[in-house]
Specification:
Length: 148
């Protein structure tokens, strides 16, 4: 099945510890590409462990599940996202930049179905074109106190 990776970096106005706290809030993840709406979040010891989400592609809504598969507090979190058509891995790395934080986002997407495989060039182009803006929105959400 086709696979492609994308990378983007943005800066948030809060220090690493506050950005890390923002990663624990499920609504923050609505700022990342491929996640339109988050519900059913789970936490363990104050850390996000997963959530259900929905994404809309070409007017069709696809439900999915995200699971946190790796954490290195307070600098790295990896999520695995699964829908009926695609799987994705999202790695978020936080790097101190004086009193702010650089947010590195890497997304690797793989198809799960024949139809998604046929449409993958268009899907990949859309993700690649949209990830820089999505990373900027995500970094902004990390800084919003009502998201934590």
């Amino acid at each position: 099945m086709p696979t492609q990776s994308f990378r983007a970096t943005a800066r948030t106005s809060v220090p690493v510890e506050e950005a890390w706290a923002g990663l624990q809030h499920p609504r923050t993840w609505e700022g990342i590409a491929g996640v339109d709406h988050v519900t059913g979040a789970t936490h363990h010891d104050g850390r996000l462990t997963g959530f259900d989400f929905a994404t809309t592609v070409a007017g069709m809504r696809y439900p999915g599940r995200s699971t946190v598969t790796r954490v290195d507090p307070p600098v790295h979190m990896r999520l695995e996202l699964t829908t009926s058509e695609l799987t994705a891995t999202i790695d978020v790395a936080l790097r101190a930049a004086h009193t702010e934080t650089d947010v590195d986002v890497e997304m690797t997407v793989q198809t799960r179905s024949f139809l998604a495989g046929m449409l993958f060039p268009a899907i990949a182009e859309t993700i690649g074109r949209g990830l820089p803006a999505a990373a900027t929105d995500f970094a902004r959400l990390l800084a919003e106190s009502d998201r934590r």
